[in-house]
Amino acid sequence: MNVLEKRKLRTTVGLSIALLAFGVAASTDSPTSDTVLEPEPRHENIGELVTTFIQKSHYNHIIVNDDLSSDVMDTYLDELDRNRVYLLESDVAFFEKYRYQLDDIVRNEPLDPVFDMFSIYRTRVRERFEYALQLLDEEPDLTIEEEYQFDREDLPWAKTTEELDELWRKRVKNDVVNLALNDKPWEESRDVLSKRYSRYLKRMDQINGDDVFETFMNAFAHTLDPHSSYLSPRNSEEYRIKMSLSYFGIGASLQTEDDYVQIVNIIPGGPAAIDGSLGPKDRIAGVAQGVDGEMTDVIGWRLDDVVDLIRGEKDTVVRLQIIPAGALPGTSDKEISLTRGQVKLEEQAAKSDIVTVPRDGRDWSIGIIEVPSFYRDFTALNNGDKNYTSTTKDVKRLIAELEEQGIDGLIIDLRNNGGGHLTEATALSGLFIDNGPVVQLKSSNGRISRLDDPDPVRRVAYNGPLAVLINRYSASASEIFAAAIQDYERGVIIGQTTFGKGTVQNLYTLDQYLQPEGDQGYGQLTLTIGKYYRVTGESTQHRGVHPDIILPSHIDAEQIGESVRETALPWDTIQTTRFRAGEPLDNMIDSLTVLHSARAKDDPNMQYMMQFIEDDRQFRDRDTVSLNLEERKAERAANMERALQLENSRRAALGLAALESLEDLDEDERPDIQLDQAAGIVTDLAELREVAGLPAQAAQVTP
């Protein structure tokens, strides 16, 4: 008997014993038992190589020991059953014997325990959805007063099968209520749910060894920090295709989260970015082809299968049924229609506009430059094309055009800008400071390097009143730029605290280090190897960049951002590098804050926004929903009526006609309240500087 045969026997026998221990028959004639999940020798090779990279290159100098093993166990359980709806307390207790073995497993021990745990999890999933299908044999009573607790992440594991049965009875009933809220009769709801639950079962049968290994290795990587990850060979190829932009889609990054495919981020210049309807953490419930194709329910689908539905020929239409981020179960879905296309570089480009602010009989012109990402066309640059596209070149041109039109102040809008090329962040900063350091970088070996304005002899492109507008989705390179403007006292930072992503990652293609076995390959590892620091020595990691003047935002900082991730690297400091800022803006910012606050009290748009945010927060704080259909209908109607009242109160204060329904609201009529407030603040800044006869704000720096 060879090594592989011994491994297969050990895996099969071990799994059978484990399943029998929990009263699960490991029948050999079951249609699902012939797909025994077991590791391959190459998985162990990958585990050893990844462990070597982690110990040598990760920023935190990770020691793979029993303490880490315990943390990996907790993360692995979260990856499998974060909401605690499948596994029993006895299952988790059985897994405890492996808690301090996982460090040995990733170094040089067989991976069988990892696969055994997954196989038990898969069996429990099958049990749950087989039970859910049985529940569809009888129409549930939607008139009973009872509630379903949909958020179970912090609750104890279920002790008995009966306890899980009761939980799933309510879960299935809630699924029926959700469909009934969308006017689906019982027969149609039963058909939809039957297909959905059967699809879950099929999905479990399609899982292979690479899927199990990737799940575990990601639990290992995510224990280190949120941005380290492992991709299997198949998903590595998917990543390569995405990066080459060689397919036509909607221009959004997706991931699976529990039962849904969820939006991770929107790619600037893609169809979704141009449309503007999708946002991070929105969930895709259905996909339809063309303007009138039938909507396919995709809840519970594999990520790659959903991606295949979304992809298609250029200029064809795909419709998505979307559950907005943070929405409670049963909240009205929205349907959006997108025309497939490639991400277009010209659509990623910075754009300019001018906002006119009337003030005491004078119209002030405030220039707006929206920067959706930090981009640079390296292909054109490497080919010697001096006209290559870049953020800095585009912004410099736009500034010149705006100044020709006579602007009184300038806003750089970095909202939703998730970053991009570091070279562009430093170069763009150089348009507003004479010369000097922009950001510091500390690597895993402790070496600190300083990145300066790459063109120190270039004159500043603009030295007038300046503000940078940010929100929670402003990250990475956006934070580097905003921090530099703030530290040099060059401008005022307005908006919401940024994301807090101040780490550097490196991508390792593992096929370069291991000899591929046929066409299987080894996948790729993304590893955090460094951190960014401001010129003051403070990290942007975890805390982000705090605005000088805060604006309310519908983005919940308690749900979004680096600080909400349990394994995020901490904020810390290094030594301040030598730089000289402009004149302190503290007193100016105090005056601007007073003026802004006074104006906001009487601004109908601001009052509307603050009340909307408060209502939304109260709505999201809930973790239960009623299973009484009429109560849910009444609640939804009340929420719609409340939203209509808020909108009409805003319109009345502005002298606009009231709406009979929110469906009558033209999206183009919605004001950009944050941008309007920022424009008012920059007008204040321009006025104050003009009255005081102050010089331009350009920072002077010594080498």
What's the alpha carbon Rg, rounded to whole Å? 28 Å
User: How would you describe the oligomerization state of the chains in this entry?
Assistant: single chain
Top CATH class of the largest domain: Alpha Beta
CATH superfamily heading of the largest domain: 2-enoyl-CoA Hydratase, Chain A, domain 1
Low-confidence stretches: 1-34, 242-247, 698-703
Plain-language structure description:
By secondary structure, the chain is of the alpha+beta class. It has 4 domains: 3-224, no CATH class; 246-339, PDZ domain (Pdz3 Domain), CATH 2.30.42.10; 345-603 and 677-692, 2-enoyl-CoA Hydratase, Chain A, domain 1 (Alpha-Beta Complex); 604-676, no CATH class. It contains 21 helices and 19 strands. It has helices spanning 3-21, 41-57, 66-81, 89-95, 102-107, 112-135, 161-181, 186-206, 209-224, 233-244, 271-275, 303-310, 345-348, 378-382, 391-404, 422-429, 477-487, 586-601, 604-620, 629-653, 673-692; strands at residues 147-149, 229-231, 252-257, 260-266, 283-289, 296-297, 317-323, 334-339, 351-359, 362-370, 409-413, 437-443, 448-452, 466-470, 492-495, 503-509, 524-533, 549-550, 624-626. The strands form 4 sheets. Strands 3, 4, 5, 6, 7 and 8 form a 6-stranded antiparallel β-sheet that branches. A 6-stranded mixed β-sheet has the order 9-10-11-14-15-18, with helices on both faces. β14 (466-470), α17 (477-487) and β15 (492-495) form a beta-alpha-beta unit.
